[in-house]
């Protein structure tokens, strides 16, 4: 029995990941890997990210001259995910998706790719995300998010547009306008220089500090407003 186990152990150590036992949807991933992608940002204005399941963190850096993507990959095998970072004109396009991850939820054992991305501070961001938490901080560019589920936390940014299915949302200290179309979950915004526009399905809304405020639909849940400098419009 010892002679059978030793070669298998050696193979696992050499590969750096666990790849065995083919699995299907609903079972825990058997493959794990860490990968890093980099791309010069010298001529780039925007990072366009399309991600499936997994948590996403984007951090701006004043000293960064390239986009750096650190990925934690959980999949059924080494061929069961896609991770690419390509330049297309003035835009970088990042695609990250583990197969059979459409029904993944936060803390689920299913396939996912967790992403930690470092970008130049002034880069604009476009995010199309399936599920998982999103955190963006120290970015001064425009941000456009289309999110399925999971919490969203943004610190900084200029003009921001968020379309969200479900999950809590916190946006602080932006320099431009903020537009939110939210399905469900608590919304908290603080210190927004421009106008805040909110269309909300359900969940409480808390606005503390804004240049102006338009509530197109407050849905169900409490509404608390403080320190709005300009006009406040609430459509009952």
TrEMBL record:
Please identify the protein, giving its name as recorded.
Answer: DUF4097 domain-containing protein
Under the heading InterPro entries, the entry gives:
Toastrack_DUF4097
Q: Which Pfam family, giving just one, matches this sequence?
A: DUF4097
Q: Which domain of life is it from?
A: Bacteria
- The DUF4097 domain is annotated at 51-208
């Amino acid at each position: 029995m010892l002679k059978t186990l030793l070669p298998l152990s050696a193979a696992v150590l050499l590969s750096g990941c666990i790849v065995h036992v083919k699995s299907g949807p609903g079972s825990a991933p058997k493959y794990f890997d860490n990968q890093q992608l980099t791309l010069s940002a010298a001529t780039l204005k925007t990072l366009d990210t399309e991600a499936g399941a997994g948590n996403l963190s984007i951090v701006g850096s004043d000293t960064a001259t390239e986009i750096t993507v650190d990925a934690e990959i959980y999949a059924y095998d080494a061929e069961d995910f896609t991770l690419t970072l390509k330049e297309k004109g003035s835009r970088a396009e990042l695609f990250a998706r583990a197969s059979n991850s459409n029904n993944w939820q936060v803390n689920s054992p299913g396939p996912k790719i967790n992403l930690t991305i470092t970008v130049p501070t002034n880069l604009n961001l476009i995010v199309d995300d399936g599920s998982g938490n999103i955190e963006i901080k120290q970015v001064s560019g425009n941000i456009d998010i289309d999110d399925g589920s999971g919490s969203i936390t943004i610190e900084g940014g200029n003009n921001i547009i968020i379309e969200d299915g479900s999950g809590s949302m916190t946006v602080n200290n932006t320099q431009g306008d903020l537009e939110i179309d939210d399905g469900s979950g608590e919304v908290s915004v603080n210190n927004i220089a421009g106008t805040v526009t909110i269309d909300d399905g359900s969940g409480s809304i808390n606005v503390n500090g804004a240049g102006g405020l338009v509530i197109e639909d407050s849905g169900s849940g409490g509404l608390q407003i403080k320190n709005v400098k300009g006009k406040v419009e609430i459509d009952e």
